[in-house]
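dumping this here before i forget
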Amino acid sequence: MILIVLDKRCSIGIESGDAKCLNNRCTYKFNYGDGSATSGYYVSDLLHLEMLSDNTNQSSNALSTVMFGCSTSQSGELSKPDRAVDGIFGFGPQGLSVISQLASQGAAPDAFSHCLVGDGDGGGILVLGQITDPNMVYSPLVSSAQHYNLHLQSISVDDKTLSIDPSVFETSHNRKGTVIDSGTTLAYLAEDAYDPFVTAITKSVPHSVEAFDAKEYKCYITKDSISKVFPNVSFNFAGDASMVLKPESYLLRQKTVGDKTAWCIGFQKVKGQGLTILGDMVLKDKSVVYDLGGQRIGWVDHNCKKLFNVSTKSSGRRRISNASPIDYRNSLRSTLYKLTPIMIFAFLLHLL
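structure:
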């Protein structure tokens, strides 16, 4: 492992305000959305890659030098023994993320994908490359955004478009816009969109469903299957791309008493920031593609326990492989490019 001394890549961090170079060392400090923070030094090391071939099970090994943060201090949730993590693997769109560095060196495609299992013990798959599906829909990324921002145009509940000013979802100097973020567990709606969204769902359910408020959530009690009494909702993006959510993708099961079960809408309200985040709750049971080269995000409903096709561009060749769902405990080791965990503790790069 090599300590970074005024590496040209540090300029990316300096420009974003996350890095400083003092006494021939480049340091960083990141603050995350939950109030946690981490700080330390930039270092570089070799990342071992094993690229899987088509259906022959052949593979080739490669090494790539990546720059990452070696943390010397954590605060907030990151410092709690029951919440602490060994590291954060950065897959953001900015130049210092691991995926951006690998792609710039030609060591990996400039795209990655995931498919998160929505039931049981979870799990899924992470792929360096693009999951392919003829039914995949794509929406363009907001240019020059720091995160994976999309142009959300409207929300529909039970096929009825809600009366929400589209500017509520825009990305601007005073609005954070609509972000796709696998690092967020639930989902969040901008303040001006939350109430119309919850009201429309509540009005669409039959009178047999009992609605009540529980802290920051709207909840319901029913003895019926939620797929029969709750509507589908649709988030409609630029590019004629809609993300349709079944009730299982926006309701959280709480408690069952007798033949009745309590369910709560998993979206929370974000006040005063103009921010909407679609996290794992709505991304589960979908193949999601982050195409950095094409500046777009794609998605399609998929049973993440089943096989799917993956395409990559490497050295001018296009490869098609079959990827299998894997347990979350080994997800970083079994992707299309198998990553040997060298200093995973220190992968503290920006995801949000």
